[in-house]
């Protein structure tokens, strides 16, 4: 399966960046790369299932390349395949301050989903999510 999406890896965990054209998928990936993430794929991401995992990779034709709007296509060290553990949708805003555990279903598997349209500091938020996870949802009500 090939999705119109970008993907980065951070501490060997993949983040799938979804959204319509012009939503900022490449920009978010570049910002996360500046904080230490690595590029897996930009604009088109190949997904495959491996047992209980979803693995992302880049098509060979765009491996190691990322678009910077208004600048051009930039080279980047390609990370290679990574297990996707989190997704963000830049086309949908999050209305809740402490949202429920949202999920994205792909290839018969489910992963956490963050709604990120218009969210400031999204790169640092997502990097922390990848590094340490999200606190138990039961704790939100205390």
From TrEMBL:
Pfam families recorded: Hpr_kinase_C
EC number: 2.7.1.-
GO molecular function: ATP binding; phosphorelay sensor kinase activity
InterPro entries assigned to the protein according to its UniProt record, in alphabetical order: Hpr_kin/Pase_C, P-loop_NTPase
Keywords: Kinase, Transferase
Stretches of the chain forming a coiled coil according to its record: none
Enzymatic class: transferase
Residue intervals of the HPr kinase/phosphorylase C-terminal domain: 3-75
GO biological process: regulation of carbohydrate metabolic process
Protein name: Hpr(Ser) kinase/phosphatase
